[in-house]
Design goal:
The chain is mainly alpha-helical. It has one domain (about 1-155). It is about 70% helix and about 0% strand. α1 runs antiparallel to α3 (about 75-115) and α3 (about 75-115) packs antiparallel against α4 (about 125-145).
Length: about 220
């Protein structure tokens, strides 16, 4: 019982530190990310929309997307793009905050998961609930990243922090999918546990790295 109480106290202290660090750094990371968007304020009025977008952005913001008729005259284009960029900023802020929440949830799930691997099956239900919460926060974060209005009309082909962030996003999304699929198979096939853990670690470290590279 004493060890369990110490474990709970340690976990609460850890999450308090995570929360404080998040409050201190989220604004700095947001400013760093949004600084790359300042160029968008100078809009080329001869262009209706960026030629290259993510598939998810095309669904909403493309020429044949849900909001395809939002552009009218040249003056409307300029004003609409300004509104789009304000929406983009808000969504990217939510994207970063969601990343912090998801990363913290992954840490908690990893701590409890290690207890399960050591035979403490009384925490199985808690682990599953945390898993559901992490999936929800991850989905919220992904939506705010994938469906933002497009940024610049011209894409830089150089290796940038934004490009690294996107590559790492592919890694942690793949890890999340693998983690969830393997989680449904472990009870039937316990030999999958090492692969489940490896997929979870891949998700955690690639998500953490994606948050770090955007800072620099």
């Amino acid at each position: 019982m004493r060890n369990y109480l110490n474990y709970k106290a340690l976990k609460k202290t850890f999450f308090l530190l995570i929360f404080i660090c998040a409050l201190n750094t989220v604004q700095g990371q947001t400013d760093s990310l949004l600084q790359t968007l300042l160029v968008d304020e100078k809009i080329d009025s001869q262009l209706i929309a960026p030629k290259k977008m993510l598939f998810t952005q095309q669904l909403i913001w493309g020429n044949n997307g849900i909001l395809k008729n939002r552009y009218g005259s040249t003056q409307d284009l300029v004003e609409r793009r300004k509104i789009d960029l304000r929406i983009r900023r808000k969504m990217l802020q939510l994207h970063q905050i969601g990343g912090f929440v998801t990363l913290g949830g992954m840490v908690a799930q990893g701590i409890i998961g290690s207890q399960l691997y050591n035979g403490s099956y009384r925490l199985k239900e808690t682990h599953e609930k945390l898993g559901a919460a992490v999936n929800l926060s991850y989905g919220f974060t992904a939506i705010n990243g994938l469906f933002t209005p497009p940024s610049t009309f011209k894409r830089d082909k150089k290796l940038t922090s934004i490009r690294l962030h996107k590559w790492l996003a592919i890694a942690h999304m793949s890890g999340m999918i693998a983690t969830n699929i393997l989680a449904t198979q472990i009870e039937k096939n316990p030999s999958l546990k090492p692969y489940h853990r490896a997929a979870a670690y891949t998700s955690f470290f690639s998500l953490g790295a994606a948050m770090v590279v955007i800072k620099f």
